[in-house]
């Protein structure tokens, strides 16, 4: 048993938890099945891994831009609350499992069962209708931890190996079914690029694609507006992103104040730097991050899609990869990314203010990942089907649901003592519903 654990530990630490390597090895498998020459296989691995690493650099830069501001808001208003963010949710789930005498290794077995079940459902495509393989390794790790805690908390009798297997089957079914629901939406947005979304707002992607047309017309999308005069600034998305960030986060930074930000962001705000210069650099770095993201996306998605031609024609016939939602940022109107983020943020602010007004015992602090990745992604898909009006309605709604739904889930799963929850749209809507059915019907 120790030998098997060591093998699984090595695979997990060096492959599954390292998404760039995981994606690169999938490309290697696909290229081998396509009978490519050895140097093409090596090149494919490197380009896919480097492309994903570039994407990660952009993601970390984005997080580094926003995190000090969120910390500043928390410090400014002296609030002690639960942070909704997958990173905080993962840490909270880990601590929650420890509080009942279990380690995170249980969650990693859940992950293994879930991934195998995804492959089984894909192999049985004629029966299951599943076409997608969930390949977003870092997301899988976080979701496995939270899902394991949810089941262990709601049904104490399942705090054993059997419970882990059942949790893995539940999580693997979620990955398979909901990534599958994004296939048509992603093909429509990307012009048939050959991948689906495998992240944490898959239900939201499906909804935006399916019902976006009810809110507005596709022809009246973000890119269809004729901009004249000073509004021509918004023709270039790097300029428009910087301007919008200045208008939105510039105000936030002024409210927080230079002394607090200087303390929270010492690396980027030295004492000899002007506050105005700091504000501009922070807001401009948001646009820089998006350019980096788009560059990485193009690199790894191209290799992954080509390699899946080999996998889908041999081992897993008719399959396609379900990848990080950021892979969609290289398609559609880039301004929809920024506007989706902004309207989602407005929705979150409205919801948080409502919690304060109605004296909720639980206060939510928004984390960067739900704030940006949910709403930027939904902005793209909503704009693609229902234009600017759909983007506004769906992203505002997403922001509200992220806060109110997370508050519901935190209470239901008793995660407030551990100060974190996932907060992403699926886990603020779909998973609380699953939790209620489990709690009151004892159904997994």
Question: How would you describe this protein?
Answer:
This protein is 71% helix and 4% strand. The protein has 444 residues and is mainly α. The strands form two sheets. The chain has a three-stranded parallel β-sheet. Strands 2-4-3 form a three-stranded parallel β-sheet, sandwiched between helices. The protein is globular and about 55 Å long.
Topology summary:
Blueprint: H1 2-16, H2 19-33, H3 38-76, E1 82-84, H4 86-99, H5 105-123, H6 125-128, E2 132-134, H7 137-154, H8 161-180, H9 183-190, E3 196-197, H10 202-211, H11 237-256, H12 258-264, H13 275-313, E4 320-323, H14 334-357, E5 364-366, H15 368-413, E6 420-421, H16 425-441
Parallel strand pairs: 1-5, 1-6, 2-4, 3-4
